[in-house]
Amino acid sequence: MDPIRERQLALTRRRFFGLGAASVGAGLGAMALGSLGGLSARAHAARGNTALPIGPHFAPKAKRVIYLHMEGAPSQIDLWDYKPELRQRFNQDLPDSIRKGQRLTTMTSGQARFPVAPSMFKFSRYENRQNGVWLSELIPHTASLAREICFVHSMHTEAINHEPGITFFQTGTQQPGRPSFGSWMSYGLGSANANLPTFVVMITQGLGNMQALSARFWGSGFLPSEHQGCKLRSSGDPVLYLKDPPGVERADRRRMLDLVAQLNEREFDSTLDPEIRTRIAQHEMAFRMQMSAPELTDFSDESAETLALYGPEVSKPGTFAANCLLARRLAERGVRFIQLYMRGWDAHGNLPSEMRAQCGAVDQPQAALLKDLKRRGLLDDTLVLWAGEFGRTVYSQGELTNTNYGRDHHPRCFTVWMAGGGVNPGVSYGRTDDYSYNIVENPVSVHDLHATLLHLLGFDHERLTYFAQGRDFRLTDVEGRVVRELLA
């Protein structure tokens, strides 16, 4: 039977009026549209409202994503966007011709002046597949892989504060409630490992000023909740309740789940609520993770060489090094989307000392992740993204001295980088002005970046949609273009 017709027949009069006036109106409208348009099961599946993965639209270059999000927004001027001429402009006022009246945050809008603060760190030139790239002394391990990395120096975003900025980077909009990038991947690609979640999140507590992280950053929004991210804990068991209570055997747990599933199926037959079957699936995943999660987090099968590659903190749960190694282990086990948050990059003051500490924690592990993926044959089909939610200002927030300065939020331009998964390796794309304040060549928006990443994963970003709240939604909203120059 046509599933739409089956649902209409199963919708009793009592339940129909129990939905409430607003829902009833929406239901009547949907029925009217269905009768006029003759929507079939195939048509509804094409709109995306199906529990099955959509599958790629064309042959993908990447099978999975590892997204390293530097929460708090690293300074592009001190890491990736080399501006040696700024040293001659130390403590000069930022010209009005550069600022152009652009908005500022409330943290610096009241400053009497905006003194130019050149980076105090040394830069060196590294060979890539173009004419070389200049990178900071703070990230020597990452810089050594310049031939593998694609730098985008011309990123820009609409948001100027952290919460909307991170929300925009994760979901394609500054407003909460939309599905995260990882949830879209789970919905589009489905699972490649029945014993682990499709979308996994790990968080490292940073060493500088830390902003709050909301669980909605890895939420599924209006997508079925089975597509939300599963956060692994940084201490103790990676997820709660991995061990059954004393006296409960594995067979007892299996019988209990079977009974609960039967009761849930009865409820589904009565209410037709798709979230009930999602809950059944989550119960089954939790049961399987009681076996898979301890094996995942046990590094005893890793060689001494591999552990040394990731650095001295790899054996400390919750560190960025440990999470990078876990990311590789998740990737080789078929997890589709792996997201690492590194907190502590919000350097409004004391930037030099904070950035030294932050880079010391991430540089070797993230370089080791790329090396490890490559030597295991995983980098070719693993898309690695490194990004913050925006950049930092060229002018100093607060007092500027020869040894210390801070930087405010700057959405006008910043740098992200990518590697593997069909990305054009060893190139730099886009260019900023002499102050790293405005983009002068090849701007890339957040929607453009999302469209490009989706393309590498085999999706036409305009066709990966989900019908909710009366219209089709997509990660790129109503904008976005594939940046072909970033593709191998």
3D architecture notes:
By secondary structure, the chain is an alpha/beta fold. The protein has three domains: 3-46, no CATH class; 64-238 and 297-486, Alkaline Phosphatase, subunit A (3-Layer(aba) Sandwich), CATH 3.40.720; 246-293. The protein is 35% helix and 15% strand. The protein is built from 15 helices and 17 strands. The chain has helices spanning 3-10, 13-18, 21-37, 41-46, 76-79, 96-99, 140-143, 162-171, 181-189, 250-271, 274-296, 304-310, 320-332, 351-375, 446-456, and strands at residues 64-70, 123-126, 133-136, 149-156, 199-204, 230-231, 337-342, 382-387, 391-396, 407-410, 414-419, 427-429, 431-432, 439-441, 444-445, 466-468, 471-473. Helix 13 (320-332) runs parallel beside helix 14. It is globular.
Content of β-strand: 15-25%
- Low-confidence blocks of residues: 18-50
Architecture per CATH nomenclature, i.e. the level-2 architecture of the largest domain: 3-Layer(aba) Sandwich
Large-scale geometry:
globular
**Counted beta strands:** 17
**Secondary structural class:** alpha/beta
Radius of gyration: 24 Å
CATH class of the largest domain: Alpha Beta
In summary, what is this structure?
The protein is α/β, with parallel strands linked by helices and 488 residues long. Helices cover 35% and strands 15% of the residues. About 7% of the residues have low confidence.
Q: What descriptors fit this protein?
A:
Alkaline Phosphatase, subunit A; 17 strands; alpha/beta; 35% helix; two-stranded antiparallel sheet; single chain; 488 residues; nine-stranded mixed beta sheet; 15% strand; 3 domains
